Write the structure tokens for this entry.
Amino acid sequence: MTALSLRSDGSGKLTTLVLFLPPALMLFTLFVVLPIGEAAWYSGFNWNGFGVPVNWIGLDNYRFVFGHKAFATAFKNNLLIIAVSLLVQLPLALALAIILADRFRGAVALRMVFFLPYILAEIATGLIFSFVYDGDYGLLAAIYRVFGAEAPHLLASSTTAFPAILLVVVWKYFGFHMMLFIAALQGMDRNMVEAARIDGATRWQVLRFIVIPTLYPTIRLSVFFAIVGSLQLFDLVMPLTRGGPADSSHTMVSFLYNFGVTRMRVGFGSAVGVILFVVCVTFAFGYKRWIMRDE
Amino acid sequence: MGLFMRGFLAAAALALSTGLAAAQVTVKWLHIEANPAQVKIWEEVARDFESKNPGVKVDMQYLENEAYKAKAPTLLQSRDRPHIIYSWAGGVLKAQVEAGVLEDITAQVQNFKASLSPSAVESFTVGGKIYGLPHTVSQVGFMANKELLAKAGLDAAKILTWDDLLDATKKLKAAGITPIAVGGADKWPVHFYWTHLAGRMGGKAAFDAALRGQDGGFEADTFQKAGELFKQLIDLQPFQNGFLGFKSQQAIGHFGDGKAAMILAISSFYHTQKVFAADKVGISDDKLAWINFPVVPGGKGEPSDTLGGVNGWLITKGAPKEAVNFVMHFISPDVQKRLAAGNFLIPTVTGAESGLGSAFMRNIAQNIAKSKYHQNFWDQDLGPSVGRVVNDATAELAGGTMTPKQVAKAIQDAFKQGN
């Protein structure tokens, strides 16, 4: 806005527009708008993905999706991931960030260690944890054996499979949020903290009234990433459980893949995709509008 | 933009044309064989074909079984699809034919097909046209560890009826031995129980009736009964701990390690139980027994009926004719005899089964030869959508989250909904 309005002549503005807008707009149309439109179109058909869709069934696919008990579970699981991200992962990341933002011996090394899980590819992480959780040969089994107990097969029970995935989610992503917080803390004005200390503020008061309020913008951003990431979670689920047992550990995306793509029900899968899209867009715009409006 | 695009296209065209000039026809062959010993022979067969056909290169690509099934629909519609793909025939094949992604090879194999088992070729024929060629057949039954059975005072040859199996399960449990290993995470190993029980209960007639939608289709008595019988076994908790988290390969390894007395197996597990065993040796021939799937009281299916696969190679749309030539070379009597001698497969070339190296595999070949009704795997036969529901529902039955009635209903609902 400012860059453009600084220009005194309108023609310069127009040139900029003509020059820079079309490529971006075209890419956006080609890779975002068109696929979304296509998915919405396909979701009205009973179609196996081969050739051209002809069998129009209206909104039936949406009825099938909402009537599917695994979809309800998947939706609930997505909400669970969000809850765990917000209530466990972010506080953990924040606490670690506050500790590790200070300069002391080993701080940098520890930051690296906590950040490492985030660098690992999701599929690799999933495979590693499927070995860790293995009730016969895994790390967990070895730990149980030390205490002379028989390890449970966490991924084989519909009550424990999803909590086991949640644990991996927290393990994998807390380092990322920690880094965001550390970056923000390092950009913080140290003088304020010092001034407060001189005025006799306790450590807790400094934390409560200075450090955390300065972090608010970052926390809001972090929450945004956590929620969007939760909605998209897929590649950790596949190597760990593929959504099983008894469809207890699906997320919306793994539900889409399992019931749409692998079963050649493209219309059905597209309907799930459209629902997911609507959820994400509503959230993103709502969040921007109400929570991040100052930034 | 336009300039960029043109430059890019020109570069791409150049890359393409130089590629063509250097070659040669490359036949892209996608397989799912996980046994290195067998893949080694296949590679030799491919190199042999290349040496006999100068200018042709055979490029082998591998995908894991479940990954292949999931990827196939997308893969087949890409421009870069492989020329030869693995197939279980059945409903999936029909869907692929309807989609027009396969090549009609009827004319090219007209003379060749006479050397193969007619019923196996029939499996790869849709609407009178041949789209692929079968290279092996298989049977589903229990593979048993004689040593572990003996510990519980059992004899594999005496497990003939479903009640015998239930009884054996109880005795094995009492002896502290895991009765049966199963790969519950993959689900299809579980569907063998329910579908074979349904076959034993109602035979071919019941399956055909269900397809026509008679007596409530898959909700008919036969199928509810199959679920109830399976439930009798499930209630005894016959499977290894955590079986719902085991993939098929892990479960086969579990059996190969001697940690479970039995496994409901495809006959080809004869080899894979060695490959997936921790020691790579597995259960030796003298300790390995085959138990035909038990018969059920009052069942209408013939005891000689078999459930199993017919596997082969499909030629995809637009594949070079060399691809078909290679498949014919792959299923030639020489190669089939060689694979049979190594006990890798039950051959489809008539007469090649006499070359089977082990008594175990000869027994399977005889079972299939005697069978008047060889039912293809249901999850393949019923097509990708309904087939997967059979797998889902039966796995849920095993996990205790569905009742036999709900299983039958879920399958019938999926069947009515179609694809």
In short: Confidence is low (pLDDT under 50) at residues 1-5, 12-22 of chain B. The first strand of chain B starts at residue 25 and ends at 31. Chain B touches chain A at residues 1, 69-70, 73-74, 76-77, 95-96, 98-101, 184-185, 187, 241-246, 384-385, 388, 392, 395-396, 399, 401-402, 417-419 (CB under 8 Å).
